[in-house]
Specification:
Order of helices and strands: HHHEEEHEEEH
CATH architecture of the largest domain: Beta Barrel
Shape: globular
Strand order of the largest sheet: 1-2-3-5-4
Distance between the termini: 67 Å
Helix content: 25-40%
Number of helices: 5
CATH superfamily of the largest domain: Nucleic acid-binding proteins
Number of domains: 2
CATH class of the largest domain: Mainly Beta
Radius of gyration: 22 Å
């Protein structure tokens, strides 16, 4: 009897560990690879202010994206992709799925991609009525990414 109890006590934790290892091996590596630190893709020394019309909003993990058409002074229209925080974090900050609907004119402040592409990490999105929504990804190393906890406007 004692041997059976002893084996059962050892076997159950080992089975739990084996299951955890098996699940981790089956998990796709894509979500982890898709998530990145701010400095891996964006340049804190290249702030951008983009005024344009929203063409598309993607509420996807690990980051939501806002696509906007920005018209330059010479009339050239450039399609920009703006990375925001995770959808769950945006909702906790007061965002709704229709907060930035296609066709809305917005001002986005953020930081341009290192490679100079028309892609930015968004920090703030100002709506036509003047409301500002914090769009940044917290904890990525982006400038002011601790803003929510510090109480800064």
């Amino acid at each position: 009897m004692k041997t059976t109890r002893f084996c059962t006590r050892l076997a159950l934790p080992a089975l739990g560990l084996a299951a955890a290892v098996a699940l981790s091996l089956m998990a796709s590596p894509e979500p982890a690879a898709a998530h990145h630190a701010f400095a891996a893709e964006f340049d804190a020394t290249k702030p951008v202010r983009l005024r344009g019309k929203v063409t598309k909003v993607e509420w996807v993990n690990p980051h939501a994206w806002i696509h906007i058409d920005v018209t330059d002074d010479d009339g050239t229209v450039t399609a920009w992709m703006v990375e925001c925080g995770p959808p769950g974090a945006l909702v906790r900050r007061g965002w709704k799925k229709n907060s930035v609907a296609p066709g809305t004119e917005v001002l986005v402040e953020g930081y341009q991609a290192i490679d100079g592409a028309p892609r930015a990490n968004g920090r703030d999105v100002t709506l036509p009525d003047g409301r500002r929504l914090f769009a940044g990804s917290s904890g990525t190393g982006a400038p002011y990414d601790d803003r929510e906890s510090s109480g800064q406007p």
